[in-house]
Amino acid sequence: SQQGEEDPQALSIQEGENATMNCSYKTSINNLQWYRQNSGRGLVHLILIRSNEREKHSGRLRVTLDTSKKSSSLLITASRAADTASYFCVASDSWGKLQFGAGTQVVVTP
Amino acid sequence: DSGVTQTPKHLITATGQRVTLRCSPRSGDLSVYWYQQSLDQGLQFLIQYYNGEERAKGNILERFSAQQFPDLHSELNLSSLELGDSALYFCASSVGGRTVTDTQYFGPGTRLTVL
Questions:
Q1: SS3 A83
Q2: How far is C-alpha A1 from the chain's CA centre?
Q3: Residue B80 has what pLDDT?
């Protein structure tokens, strides 16, 4: 079963708008990673945030982590049509076991 | 292109059969991970190998087995196939063996259809 839960399940926005998605997890983690998956293809690593970090930036991506609430958010600023994909959060516990969220489907329309 | 290759791309077989999926990691990566992605279960971690040895085990069925060979490529064997085994199977690789810190690079996947 999935440990992570993502919200919303789907998101439709226009180019230039920001997209925000949230992820919650149940167990204590060492780090949390976000991946992107284009339809039917492999996952692409976006960003990793460690449990002792609160915020991290990478280009147009901003990730926050709140270990007290066991939640993380991914913000994509100034979205582009090419950002259309599913986004997954992946929590890794101290044993190295990975739990994937169900994913948020993001559609960016021109 | 992540550098991880998987073969075959598509596989169609019947219930009760056995199939083998193959993965070649990125050059220099010692860890290989296998995942199953299905519509009802989402993405599930199956198993990890590091330098030829099993490192971590996830939700892998007893009918499934994997191994990593001396040249570091890996095979996932699925036997006594059931309809519910139809899914995308991904392989990923990373440099080290610690999932807690290593970035994983995913292959394009093998789509298995069991009829």
A1: helix
A2: 18
A3: 96
Which of B4, B38, B43, B46 has the highest number of chain A CBs within 10 A, making it the mutation to test binding with A? B43
**B39 touches A at CB < 8 Å:** no
Strand ranges (E), chain B? 5-7, 10-13, 19-24, 31-38, 42-50, 53-57, 64-68, 74-78, 87-94, 105-106, 110-114
The SS3 of residue B84 is helix
pLDDT attached to residue B98: 65
What is the average pLDDT across A90-99?
73
Task: Select from A30, A97, A105 the residue whose CB has the most chain B CBs within 10 Å, as the one to mutate to test that interface.
Answer: A97
- Establish whether the linkage from the previous residue to A110 is cis, with ω within 30° of 0: no
Tell me the pLDDT tens digit for each residue of A11-67: 999 999 999 999 988 888 888 899 999 887 788 889 999 889 999 999 999 999 999
pLDDT at A90 over 90: no
| Alpha carbons A92 and B99: distance in angstroms, whole number | 7
For chain B, say whether A27 makes contact (Cβ under 8 Å).
Answer: no
Amino acid at B108: P
Residue B103 contacts A where some CB pair is shorter than 8 Å: yes
Counting DSSP H helices and E strands in chain A, the numbers are: 0, 11
